[in-house]
Recover the amino acids of this structure.
Protein backbone atom coordinates (compact mmCIF):
# COMPACT_ATOMS: atom_id res chain seq x y z
CA UNK A 1 0.00 0.00 0.00
CA UNK A 2 1.15 3.55 -0.75
CA UNK A 3 1.13 4.95 2.79
CA UNK A 4 1.82 8.52 1.69
CA UNK A 5 -1.54 8.76 -0.10
CA UNK A 6 -3.53 7.46 2.86
CA UNK A 7 -1.55 9.48 5.40
CA UNK A 8 -1.89 12.66 3.35
CA UNK A 9 -5.65 12.34 3.02
CA UNK A 10 -6.06 11.43 6.69
CA UNK A 11 -3.86 14.30 7.84
CA UNK A 12 -5.68 16.78 5.58
CA UNK A 13 -9.03 15.59 6.91
CA UNK A 14 -7.84 15.94 10.52
CA UNK A 15 -6.61 19.48 9.82
CA UNK A 16 -9.98 20.53 8.36
CA UNK A 17 -12.01 18.91 11.14
CA UNK A 18 -9.77 20.45 13.80
CA UNK A 19 -10.15 23.93 12.33
CA UNK A 20 -13.93 23.49 12.13
CA UNK A 21 -14.25 22.28 15.73
CA UNK A 22 -12.10 25.13 17.01
CA UNK A 23 -14.79 27.60 15.95
CA UNK A 24 -18.03 25.64 16.16
CA UNK A 25 -19.33 22.18 15.29
CA UNK A 26 -19.45 19.96 12.20
CA UNK A 27 -23.16 20.53 11.76
CA UNK A 28 -22.48 24.11 10.73
CA UNK A 29 -20.54 22.85 7.70
CA UNK A 30 -23.12 20.36 6.43
CA UNK A 31 -25.42 21.60 3.70
CA UNK A 32 -27.24 19.44 1.15
CA UNK A 33 -27.52 22.25 -1.39
CA UNK A 34 -23.75 22.76 -1.46
CA UNK A 35 -23.23 18.99 -1.80
CA UNK A 36 -25.62 18.83 -4.76
CA UNK A 37 -24.04 21.72 -6.64
CA UNK A 38 -20.47 20.46 -6.15
CA UNK A 39 -20.82 16.71 -6.65
CA UNK A 40 -23.76 16.90 -9.03
CA UNK A 41 -22.14 19.59 -11.14
CA UNK A 42 -18.73 17.89 -11.18
CA UNK A 43 -20.32 14.56 -12.13
CA UNK A 44 -22.28 16.17 -14.97
CA UNK A 45 -19.24 17.99 -16.34
CA UNK A 46 -17.13 14.81 -16.16
CA UNK A 47 -19.78 12.81 -18.03
CA UNK A 48 -19.73 15.42 -20.77
CA UNK A 49 -15.93 15.44 -21.01
CA UNK A 50 -15.31 11.67 -21.06
CA UNK A 51 -17.04 8.64 -22.58
CA UNK A 52 -18.55 6.13 -20.17
CA UNK A 53 -15.97 3.49 -21.12
CA UNK A 54 -13.16 5.80 -19.96
CA UNK A 55 -14.95 6.46 -16.66
CA UNK A 56 -15.51 2.75 -16.01
CA UNK A 57 -11.86 1.93 -16.73
CA UNK A 58 -10.05 5.03 -15.57
CA UNK A 59 -11.64 5.87 -12.22
CA UNK A 60 -11.36 2.43 -10.55
CA UNK A 61 -7.86 1.82 -11.93
CA UNK A 62 -6.79 5.30 -10.87
CA UNK A 63 -8.14 4.84 -7.36
CA UNK A 64 -6.46 1.45 -7.07
CA UNK A 65 -3.03 2.68 -8.13
CA UNK A 66 -3.25 5.86 -6.07
CA UNK A 67 -3.32 3.70 -2.94
CA UNK A 68 -0.99 0.87 -4.01
CA UNK A 69 2.75 0.66 -4.56
CA UNK A 70 4.46 -1.32 -7.28
CA UNK A 71 5.65 -4.54 -5.71
CA UNK A 72 9.14 -4.27 -7.18
CA UNK A 73 11.33 -1.22 -7.72
CA UNK A 74 13.33 -0.88 -10.98
CA UNK A 75 16.49 -1.96 -9.14
CA UNK A 76 14.79 -5.07 -7.80
CA UNK A 77 13.53 -5.80 -11.30
CA UNK A 78 17.08 -5.58 -12.64
CA UNK A 79 18.23 -8.11 -10.03
CA UNK A 80 15.31 -10.43 -10.73
CA UNK A 81 15.77 -10.32 -14.50
CA UNK A 82 19.52 -10.95 -14.10
CA UNK A 83 18.70 -14.00 -11.94
CA UNK A 84 16.29 -15.27 -14.59
CA UNK A 85 18.95 -14.76 -17.26
CA UNK A 86 21.32 -16.87 -15.15
CA UNK A 87 18.72 -19.66 -14.92
CA UNK A 88 18.20 -19.63 -18.70
CA UNK A 89 21.97 -19.62 -19.23
CA UNK A 90 22.41 -22.72 -17.07
CA UNK A 91 19.22 -24.72 -17.72
CA UNK A 92 17.76 -23.25 -20.88
CA UNK A 93 14.28 -21.71 -21.23
CA UNK A 94 12.72 -24.87 -19.86
CA UNK A 95 14.28 -24.01 -16.50
CA UNK A 96 11.84 -21.11 -16.14
CA UNK A 97 8.85 -23.44 -15.82
CA UNK A 98 9.53 -24.10 -12.12
CA UNK A 99 10.27 -20.46 -11.25
CA UNK A 100 7.53 -18.43 -9.59
CA UNK A 101 7.53 -14.81 -10.75
CA UNK A 102 5.42 -12.36 -8.74
CA UNK A 103 5.28 -9.53 -11.28
CA UNK A 104 2.53 -10.51 -13.74
CA UNK A 105 3.99 -8.52 -16.64
CA UNK A 106 7.42 -10.11 -16.21
CA UNK A 107 5.81 -13.54 -15.79
CA UNK A 108 3.96 -13.05 -19.08
CA UNK A 109 7.20 -12.20 -20.88
CA UNK A 110 9.00 -15.20 -19.38
CA UNK A 111 6.14 -17.44 -20.48
CA UNK A 112 6.64 -16.25 -24.04
CA UNK A 113 10.35 -17.04 -23.76
CA UNK A 114 9.63 -20.51 -22.37
CA UNK A 115 7.19 -21.21 -25.20
CA UNK A 116 9.78 -20.17 -27.77
CA UNK A 117 7.96 -17.26 -29.37
CA UNK A 118 9.68 -15.02 -31.91
CA UNK A 119 11.36 -11.87 -30.57
CA UNK A 120 9.15 -9.59 -32.69
CA UNK A 121 6.02 -11.31 -31.41
CA UNK A 122 7.18 -10.90 -27.80
CA UNK A 123 8.03 -7.23 -28.25
CA UNK A 124 4.78 -6.40 -30.06
CA UNK A 125 2.57 -8.13 -27.51
CA UNK A 126 4.34 -6.76 -24.44
CA UNK A 127 4.44 -3.23 -25.83
CA UNK A 128 0.74 -3.43 -26.71
CA UNK A 129 -0.01 -4.63 -23.19
CA UNK A 130 2.05 -1.79 -21.73
CA UNK A 131 0.40 0.82 -23.96
CA UNK A 132 -3.11 -0.34 -23.02
CA UNK A 133 -2.34 -0.33 -19.31
CA UNK A 134 -0.68 3.10 -19.42
CA UNK A 135 -3.56 4.49 -21.50
CA UNK A 136 -6.09 3.42 -18.83
CA UNK A 137 -3.89 4.84 -16.07
CA UNK A 138 -3.57 8.10 -18.02
CA UNK A 139 -7.35 8.19 -18.41
CA UNK A 140 -7.65 7.88 -14.63
CA UNK A 141 -5.36 10.82 -13.91
CA UNK A 142 -7.11 12.95 -16.53
CA UNK A 143 -10.52 12.20 -15.01
CA UNK A 144 -9.42 13.09 -11.47
CA UNK A 145 -7.70 16.21 -12.76
CA UNK A 146 -10.87 17.22 -14.63
CA UNK A 147 -12.95 16.83 -11.46
CA UNK A 148 -10.35 18.82 -9.54
CA UNK A 149 -10.50 21.60 -12.13
CA UNK A 150 -14.30 21.91 -12.23
CA UNK A 151 -15.10 21.47 -8.50
CA UNK A 152 -13.96 25.02 -7.53
CA UNK A 153 -15.84 26.41 -10.55
CA UNK A 154 -19.05 24.76 -9.40
CA UNK A 155 -18.28 26.04 -5.92
CA UNK A 156 -18.40 29.51 -7.42
CA UNK A 157 -21.68 28.61 -9.15
CA UNK A 158 -23.10 27.57 -5.79
CA UNK A 159 -21.84 30.80 -4.26
CA UNK A 160 -23.54 32.87 -6.96
CA UNK A 161 -26.81 30.96 -6.53
CA UNK A 162 -26.67 31.52 -2.76
CA UNK A 163 -25.95 35.23 -3.24
CA UNK A 164 -28.87 35.64 -5.66
CA UNK A 165 -31.21 33.90 -3.23
CA UNK A 166 -29.90 36.00 -0.37
CA UNK A 167 -30.40 39.31 -2.19
CA UNK A 168 -33.83 38.21 -3.39
CA UNK A 169 -34.89 37.76 0.22
CA UNK A 170 -33.37 40.87 1.81
CA UNK A 171 -36.76 41.74 3.30
CA UNK A 172 -36.71 38.54 5.37
CA UNK A 173 -33.66 38.63 7.70
CA UNK A 174 -34.28 35.04 8.85
CA UNK A 175 -33.35 33.72 5.39
CA UNK A 176 -30.15 35.72 4.95
CA UNK A 177 -28.04 33.46 7.17
CA UNK A 178 -28.97 30.13 5.52
CA UNK A 179 -28.50 31.51 2.01
CA UNK A 180 -25.14 33.02 2.94
CA UNK A 181 -24.11 29.65 4.43
CA UNK A 182 -25.01 27.89 1.16
CA UNK A 183 -22.96 30.45 -0.76
CA UNK A 184 -19.85 30.05 1.38
CA UNK A 185 -20.07 26.28 1.90
CA UNK A 186 -20.27 25.65 -1.85
CA UNK A 187 -16.94 27.42 -2.29
CA UNK A 188 -15.49 25.53 0.69
CA UNK A 189 -16.60 22.12 -0.62
CA UNK A 190 -15.25 22.86 -4.09
CA UNK A 191 -11.86 23.97 -2.81
CA UNK A 192 -11.57 21.03 -0.40
CA UNK A 193 -12.57 18.37 -2.96
CA UNK A 194 -10.22 19.82 -5.55
CA UNK A 195 -7.11 20.58 -3.50
CA UNK A 196 -7.24 17.81 -0.90
CA UNK A 197 -8.41 14.90 -3.01
CA UNK A 198 -8.76 15.16 -6.80
CA UNK A 199 -5.70 17.15 -7.86
CA UNK A 200 -3.29 15.34 -5.48
CA UNK A 201 -4.64 11.99 -6.70
CA UNK A 202 -4.16 13.10 -10.32
CA UNK A 203 -0.55 14.12 -9.62
CA UNK A 204 0.13 10.83 -7.84
CA UNK A 205 -1.25 8.88 -10.81
CA UNK A 206 0.96 10.90 -13.16
CA UNK A 207 4.00 9.78 -11.16
CA UNK A 208 2.77 6.19 -11.09
CA UNK A 209 2.28 6.31 -14.88
CA UNK A 210 5.89 7.43 -15.34
CA UNK A 211 7.14 4.68 -13.00
CA UNK A 212 5.12 2.01 -14.81
CA UNK A 213 6.44 3.10 -18.20
CA UNK A 214 10.02 2.80 -16.95
CA UNK A 215 9.46 -0.53 -15.20
CA UNK A 216 7.62 -2.16 -18.09
CA UNK A 217 10.09 -0.88 -20.68
CA UNK A 218 12.87 -2.32 -18.51
CA UNK A 219 11.06 -5.66 -18.37
CA UNK A 220 10.54 -5.76 -22.15
CA UNK A 221 14.23 -5.15 -22.83
CA UNK A 222 15.22 -7.72 -20.21
CA UNK A 223 12.87 -10.36 -21.58
CA UNK A 224 14.18 -9.89 -25.11
CA UNK A 225 17.80 -10.13 -23.95
CA UNK A 226 17.00 -13.34 -22.06
CA UNK A 227 15.25 -14.65 -25.16
CA UNK A 228 18.47 -13.96 -27.11
CA UNK A 229 20.49 -15.82 -24.44
CA UNK A 230 22.53 -12.82 -23.35
CA UNK A 231 24.81 -13.33 -20.36
CA UNK A 232 23.43 -12.32 -16.93
CA UNK A 233 26.22 -9.76 -16.51
CA UNK A 234 25.41 -8.13 -19.86
CA UNK A 235 21.70 -8.11 -19.03
CA UNK A 236 22.40 -6.40 -15.73
CA UNK A 237 24.71 -3.81 -17.27
CA UNK A 238 22.25 -2.97 -20.04
CA UNK A 239 19.30 -2.61 -17.66
CA UNK A 240 21.21 -0.44 -15.20
CA UNK A 241 20.72 2.40 -17.70
CA UNK A 242 17.10 2.60 -16.48
CA UNK A 243 18.18 3.41 -12.93
CA UNK A 244 18.96 6.88 -11.56
CA UNK A 245 22.66 7.75 -11.57
CA UNK A 246 23.19 7.29 -7.83
CA UNK A 247 21.51 3.86 -7.89
CA UNK A 248 23.70 2.75 -10.77
CA UNK A 249 26.85 3.60 -8.86
CA UNK A 250 25.55 1.87 -5.75
CA UNK A 251 24.86 -1.26 -7.76
CA UNK A 252 28.31 -1.14 -9.36
CA UNK A 253 29.97 -0.79 -5.95
CA UNK A 254 28.07 -3.83 -4.63
CA UNK A 255 29.07 -5.85 -7.70
CA UNK A 256 32.73 -4.85 -7.22
CA UNK A 257 32.67 -5.81 -3.55
CA UNK A 258 31.07 -9.16 -4.35
CA UNK A 259 33.70 -9.88 -7.02
CA UNK A 260 36.52 -8.94 -4.61
CA UNK A 261 35.13 -11.25 -1.93
Amino acid sequence: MDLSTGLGLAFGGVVLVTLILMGGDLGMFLDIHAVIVIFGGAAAATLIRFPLSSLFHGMPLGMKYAFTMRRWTPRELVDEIANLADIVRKKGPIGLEKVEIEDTFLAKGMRYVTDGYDANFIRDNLERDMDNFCAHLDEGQKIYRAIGDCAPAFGMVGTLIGMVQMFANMTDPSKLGPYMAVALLATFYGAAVSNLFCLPIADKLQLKLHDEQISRSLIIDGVLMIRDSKSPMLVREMLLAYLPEKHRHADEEEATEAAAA
The first helix runs from residue 3 to 22. Residues 257-261 have pLDDT under 50 and may be disordered. DSSP finds nine helices and no strands in the chain.
